[in-house]
Amino acid sequence: MLRRHGHRFVAGFLALTLALIGAIVAVEAVRIAGDALERPTVDAFYEQPAGAADGDPGTIVKLDPLLGTPLAARAWRIMYRTTTVQGDPVVSTGVLVVPLAPPPPGGRTIVSWGHPTTGAAKDCAPSYGFDPFTMIEGLRALLDRGYAVVATDYVGMGTDGPDSYLVGVTGGNAVLDAARAARAVPEARASDRLILWGHSQGGQAVLFAAERASRYAPEFDLLAVAAAAPAANLIDLMGAHLDDISGVTIGSYAFTAFSEVYPQAQLDDILTPDALEIVPTMNELCLLPNIADLHRIGQPLVGNFTTSDPTTTEPWQQLLTDNSAGSTTFDAPLFLAQGLDDTLVIPDDTEKFAAHEASLGMDVTFHPISFADHGSIAYLAIPGLLAWLDRVAPR
Fold first, then answer.
1. What's the chain's average pLDDT?
2. Domain 48-233+324-392 CATH class label
3. Binning pLDDT at 50, 70 and 90, where does residue 2 land?
4. By C-alpha distance, which of 73, 65, 229, 64 is closest to 140?
5. Where are the domains of the chain?
6. Longest dimension (CA), the chain
7. In angstroms, rounded to a whole number, what is the distance separating the alpha carbons of residues 275 and 252?
8. Residues 6+ apart with CB under 8 A from 179
9. Distance CA 223, CA 221 (A)
10. Left if phi > 0, otherwise alpha if psi is -120 to 50, otherwise beta: which for 218?
11. How far apart are CA 323 and CA 204, in angstroms?
């Protein structure tokens, strides 16, 4: 009898499991079908109309409802206005996702996400991808909490604009203006409550956003700031990779961006002749789908990429310093996750940054994960992040 009950239990459990798997597959199939239907018109979305940058930061230029959306959510591609480090008006793109469930009184809390490095070319924008949500770490959990989640592409990807890779102020502005854009979509029902969350390059962007929020976007109530393996100190980051393939890849993106943004930064003052030849090609390649090609092109330049140490050579030393976070405080609590197996953002550097922020009187939680590397840290940090949010920004 007990054995028969056991068989019935197992059979019932398997049937339920298969039903759940079937439901998930069906939902994903619908979303993927929606993504496919959108592809023929996606390029037109990223074309800017005349006068696109004319208007207040955070106002909407274009809004495109998406057919392929996460379960129980609605979403839009957005084109919105923002500003550069020089204060020039520019345009950025991204995606906005909200749950179908009714919003709480006062509207939804916004989570503005900063994505990790994807490249520097226009088509490296996450919102341009077949699945525009794939790089938003923790999206499902954030939607289940009722948040409105907005994810910028930064400036210079997706649509025309100056290169902004690791340009802290421009990245921070794009993160804050994405949150403003979320509030400008009436159907999103977004409030002025704001959480910032980012990984790697996006960690730098959200840290700059937090440091600038009280001056640049004072209308927001900044509740919490979280970053996984942030590119917080560019002197440390570049110094750790001067003679490896990561330094060649990061440097190809970053030095090019700095040379386009800062008149005093000339590529031929820091890159070798061999590097100058290959950097344009590397900047055309998006990181994840072309990592093998980037390494193949860049590997011969390891040890022969720069003419001098950019962390000690002007104007590069000052530019790396200016684009490092930690020069000013902010009132919101800070969560810093770091994988102890990370070989890109060195764990000691993030722990040192956490100690620096705490020394300024900030409320800092350092969350190391022993088995996480650079690629997995944001995903593996989600349980700790959610528990921390329950404490510092309860719903």
1. 92
2. alpha beta
3. very low
4. 73
5. 1-45, 48-233+324-392, 234-320
6. 83
7. 8
8. 58, 110, 112, 150, 190, 194, 217, 220
9. 6
10. alpha
11. 9
How many Cβ atoms from other residues are within 10 Å of residue 189's Cβ?
Answer: 16
| Amino acid 41: pLDDT | 78
Give every CB contact of residue 62 below 8 A, 6+ residues apart in sequence.
45, 49, 77, 78, 79
Pairing mode, if any, of strands 190-199 and 148-152?
Answer: unpaired
pLDDT at residue 25 greater than cutoff 80: no
* Average pLDDT over every residue of 149-178: 97
Residue from 228, 222, 128, 119 nearest 166 by CA: 119
Residue type present at position 28: E
| DSSP secondary structure string for all residues of 55-87 | S-TT-EEEEEE-SS--TTEEEEEEEEEEE-TT-
Distance CA 367, CA 359 (A): 17
Residue type for 305, please? F
Structure tokens belonging to residue 336: 């810093």
**Residues in contact with 282: Cβ distance below 8 Å, sequence separation at least 6, in sequence order:** 248, 249, 252, 253, 294, 297, 298
Mean pLDDT for the stretch of residues 82-107: 97
The answer to whether residue 3 scores a pLDDT higher than 60 is no
* Element of type H or E holding 98: strand 89-99
Residues 6+ apart with CB under 8 A from 383: none
Return the residue matching tokens 């722990």: 351
SS3 94: strand
Q: What is the DSSP letter of 159?
A: S
- Select from 278, 324, 283 the least CA-distant residue to 166: 324
Do residues 248 and 301 touch, judged by C-beta distance below 8 A? Answer: yes
**Percent residues over pLDDT 70 in the chain:** 90
Question: Count H helices, E strands: the chain?
Answer: 12, 9
